[in-house]
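Suppose a classmate hands you a notebook page containing two proteins, each written out with its sequence and a corresponding row of structure tokens. How would you begin to make sense of it? This section walks through that situation. The first entry is reproduced here exactly as it would appear on such a page.
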Amino acid sequence: MKIKNILVSQPKPVELDKSPYADLARKFNLNIDFHKFIKIEGVAAKDFRKDKVSLAEHNAVILTSRNSVDHFFRLSKEMRFEVPETMKYFCISESTAFYLQKYVQYRKRKIFYGKQSFAELMEIIKKHKDEKFLLPCSDIHKSSMTDMLDESGVFYSKAVMYNTVASNLSGIKIENYDMLVFFSPAGIKSLVKNFPNFKQGDTIFGAFGESTSQAIIDEGFTLHISAPTKTSPSMTMAIEEFIENENKKTRKK
């Protein structure tokens, strides 16, 4: 199985030459292209009001990404809701927590954060059961988040503040790639929407995350590479492992 051209469904890294993808390309003489398969569009205030979620009724907000941070403060401004200094922020990671500095004085706010997973953040949320939580999210979000919140018994409101939509991929010749790499179920939907006649054939599919892997299978495609795993915690490591295994098979023949 000869792999030469790979398409990664994410934006090109800012410093590509220093990224793991550059190392991967050099090691196996690969051509790796990047193209964002999805884009984020904010929900307008007039449309958000239809969901009848009152921002003022909450004193804590759960932030799972930079997008959730941006759109929480965007909608608050559009709806003329002055976020109180007493608002508590529960962030999925330290980097998301630091991103809050774009909107608030970090040291003067009550900010909590997990290591990276929502399950870890839930352990912190459970210690603050008396709070009224707001969960800003996309129209496409992990149901596991709301499942965990439901099971915990905390008061929360789901607030769809932005939508995940398919990018225009008409400029891509999808048939030129030996491998497609995905990072979200929305990326798979974008592939199907942009290329309704696409046949996988010998094209290798790689996925990061359980929900992305399942989305590939649900669409009837074959999944070849999944990450993270114990041996390959990153997508680039999983690709490297796959290519090396394929090369071993070829040498044996």
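The notebook's second entry, a different protein, reads as follows.
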Amino acid sequence: MVRKIVLSFAILCAVSAIQAQNLQLHFDPRNSLYGDDVAPINYLTATFEMFKPDKWGNTFMFVDFDFSFDKRNPGLAYAEIAREFKIGDFPLLPHIEYNGGLGLRGLGGVGFSIPSSYLGGFGYPFKLGNFFMSTYVAYKLNAFQELSHDAQWTLTWNSTLANGKISLAGFLDLWSEDKSFTEGSDAKGKKAVLLSEPQFWYNVTSQFAIGTEVELSYNFVNKFTESKFYAIPTIGTKWIF
């Protein structure tokens, strides 16, 4: 059952602090699964995550590096950083966030910038059974060539089972963006983009885990082609600091 917000937030911070930061390495087989239209090769992705709660709220960030360029050099770097603020016993947490990155691999080897996005809204942490969860709704400004004014809803979860041997985590994002970004300046209206990455980990020790992350998406993996759903599982390892 959902508990009092202040208690839920305190529990969430306490649990997350145990795994305040971690480094992950994933083998991504998307070329084998879907061919060259999705990615020219299979590749490794390194992820650094950090969650730091404090008496004023919490900070979360991650950085992804895709080793998808020639000779498995870095081909893409992407980062997100978010901050939530606790205001007394107010049940909602003001939420601000920045997303953006660089594509080091492009056509002809030319790099490119991933359009940044800026979010502002309210978050709500809660507990559901054995799962510590949080959700937020935010206004989202996509910094495309023509600015896109949008909305995003996010749900995150985290749970440890089997006396600490199994960890479940992940997120689900649903947002809108202008069709003109991918379909040309004549395209009108909005389209919805879905991205979810549930994770399953077996904790070999308190610091080392093996497992998988499954990227589930619609209108995301290959935005410049027809709308399509993709499910891309990885094989991963994680070291918890």
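A careful reader of the second entry would note: The domain at 5-240 is CATH 2.40.230.20 (Outer membrane phospholipase (ompla); Chain C).
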